[in-house]
């Protein structure tokens, strides 16, 4: 059963919470982070992307960068920009986007749950990205950013969280520049905290939605610290890491699309004829065409959109991987027709998060940067859970969750 632990969060004073809260470290490159934090000394980007305070061009994995993270974190605490709660709490973090609000439970997940696969994964991690975040956790001795988890919806628990939020004033309540609302409550009543933890403890498993590298890094540093403290008893903070848990029925995954640089020597007509082996192909014209069902795709090339509907027999709806549209697209289009074998390493393909809209696909093709674009129907939470439950791994760049969590509303110290 899943672990949820209360903790003494490090949090900003109300008056600077909006300025301090930042987008996650991995959705911005260094140049974008410099621009976003420019003129804002409170931004958590100074800690999670500390290269922005060092000369441009410096390797973001240089020792000086991690040291800057540590010194900036110390400075934030000394200046009172991050202040530790006196007591252990559970927190609520809700987000509103396009009129829809999702309510997350903020608490610590267990290192043991990660090691014992109670926390289930659906993506492979890359060692160099894990190691980067491990260095960051080691030097700050904190989980600066929460990971984004989901759990099978539990009405008694979910209603308790929503009722608490609706009947208590939020500690932080602001709308970010992108129009997403962020709302944060501190649960201080011990009886409510105990009830939340008790109900959560009945959940058989949780699922990494977003943040596989941060999750792995946090859990592995915890395991490391156990080795350095052989007399640990399990109550130490390093046995836990910061997570926001959302019920699966409140989350939605949006599309994650692809653009390619060439057609592997084919003309457009030749490619379309070859695609007809596996797809029903229909020319839709110049207006953006978005797939509206599973196993339907759209392709944009030379000013026109085409609907591609996978033929029966080209997919396996009884197989958690075979049912995925990214599997169909990777096998029957990228591998079979375009000779793109490894989506992780081939520089002929790039990925575009659906939050940018299909207009971004048009822009990248019409600019001449890319030759063609492919839009996919989004993965469902059920598909994600089925894959994680069966121990399978999704192909690269399959899920895109929105809205993204803001980092800095609460930090977990490993002290």
List the SSEs and their pairings.
Blueprint (H helix, E strand, L loop, with lengths): L9 E2 L5 H4 L9 H8 L7 H4 L14 H16 L4 E2 L5 E8 L2 E11 H5 L3 E2 L6 H14 L1 E2 L3 E5 L3 H13 L4 E4 L5 E7 L2 H11 L5 E5 L1 H17 L11 E8 L5 E2 L1 E5 L7 H8 L3 E7 L10 E6 L2 E7 L14 H11 L13 E5 L4 H9 L5 E5 L4 H9 L10 E2 L10 E2 L2
Parallel strand pairs: 5-10, 7-11
Antiparallel strand pairs: 1-2, 3-4, 3-9, 4-11, 6-20, 7-10, 8-9, 12-19, 13-17, 13-18, 14-16, 15-16, 15-18
Structure overview:
The two termini are 26 Å apart. The protein folds into 2 domains: 10-252 and 402-413, no CATH class; 256-377, 2-Layer Sandwich (Conserved hypothetical protein from pyrococcus furiosus pfu- 392566-001, domain 2). Strand 15 (296-301) and strand 16 form a beta hairpin. Helix 4 (63-78) packs parallel to helix 6 and helix 6 crosses helix 9 (212-228). It has an 8-stranded mixed beta sheet. It has a 6-stranded antiparallel beta sheet with strand order 14-16-15-18-13-17, with helices on both faces. Helix content is 31%, strand content 23%. It is of the alpha+beta class. The longest helix has 17 residues, at 212-228. It is built from 13 helices and 20 strands.
């Amino acid at each position: 059963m899943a672990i949820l632990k209360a903790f003494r969060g490090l949090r900003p004073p109300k008056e600077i919470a909006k300025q301090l809260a930042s987008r996650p470290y991995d959705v911005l490159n260094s140049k974008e982070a410099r621009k976003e934090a420019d003129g804002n000394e409170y931004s958590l980007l100074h800690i999670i992307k500390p290269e922005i305070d060092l000369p441009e061009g410096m390797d973001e994995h240089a020792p000086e960068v991690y040291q800057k993270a540590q010194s900036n974190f110390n400075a934030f605490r000394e200046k009172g920009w991050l202040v530790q709660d006196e007591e252990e709490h559970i927190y609520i973090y809700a987000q509103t986007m396009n009129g829809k609000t999702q309510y997350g439970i903020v608490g610590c997940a267990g290192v043991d749950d990660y090691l014992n696969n109670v926390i289930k994964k659906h993506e492979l991690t890359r060692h160099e990205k894990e190691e980067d975040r491990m260095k960051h956790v080691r030097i700050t001795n904190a989980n600066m950013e929460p990971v984004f988890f989901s759990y099978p919806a539990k009405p008694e628990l979910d209603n308790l969280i929503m009722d608490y939020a609706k009947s208590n004033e939020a500690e932080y309540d602001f709308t970010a520049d992108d129009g997403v609302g962020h709302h944060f409550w501190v649960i201080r009543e011990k009886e409510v905290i105990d009830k939340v933890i008790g109900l959560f403890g009945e959940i058989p498993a949780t699922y990494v939605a977003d943040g596989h590298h941060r999750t792995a890094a946090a859990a592995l540093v915890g395991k490391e610290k156990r080795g350095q403290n052989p007399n640990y008893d399990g109550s130490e903070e390093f046995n836990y890491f910061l997570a926001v848990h959302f019920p699966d029925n409140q989350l939605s995954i949006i599309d994650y699309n692809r653009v390619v640089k060439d057609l592997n020597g084919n003309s457009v007509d030749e490619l379309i004829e070859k695609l007809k082996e596996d797809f029903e192909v229909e020319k839709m014209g110049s207006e953006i065409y978005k797939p509206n069902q599973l196993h339907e795709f759209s392709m944009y090339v030379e000013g026109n959109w085409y609907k591609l509907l996978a033929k029966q027999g080209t997919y396996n709806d009884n197989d958690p991987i075979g049912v995925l549209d990214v599997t169909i697209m990777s096998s029957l289009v990228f591998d079979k027709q375009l000779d793109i074998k490894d989506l992780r390493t081939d520089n002929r393909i790039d990925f575009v998060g659906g939050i940018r809209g299909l207009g971004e696909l048009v822009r990248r093709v019409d600019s001449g940067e890319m030759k063609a674009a492919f839009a996919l129907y989004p993965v469902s939470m059920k598909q994600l859970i089925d894959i994680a439950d069966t121990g399978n791994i999704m192909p690269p760049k399959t899920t895109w969750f929105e809205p993204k969590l803001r980092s800095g509303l609460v930090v977990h110290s490993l002290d």
